[in-house]
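Quick one: structure for this chain?
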Amino acid sequence: MVMVWNLIERDSLHRLSGLTYLRELLLQPDVREDGNTLWIMANPKSAATNLGWLAENGISVDPRYVYMAPMYGAEIADDDLLALLDRLRPRHIILTIGAGPRSASACTSSSASPICPPFHCIGAAIASSARPGEYSGLGWTGSTSAGFPLLLRS
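Got it. Here's what it folds into:
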């Protein structure tokens, strides 16, 4: 995506790792504010790792704002996620699932909501930081559906 942007536009974007993107994102006051961010996690073990890392970095997350993404089938739909978005109305969604159909499915489901906060796909950035050595240079990159272009512009 970054390469396409750089080819089409005159200004230049730089790729960021998911962890670098996340660290910059967490500097934003509205992301840090309790109840503003919905965290989509892969499973309870991943959630424990991610929430532990966030707590160590001064971010406390209310368990109501953590959603365990299901394994999606052929149909990409998640009525539970849509209902949660409608009920909580978060200002941000942070997807902590590595690349693959599951992360794309969660992004697609959340973008189908009439509540359209920006979603930030950070992949396994937290897990790779919290458990060094378990992830080998897979090049996880952060991406966003809206907002924070200043973080990327040269």
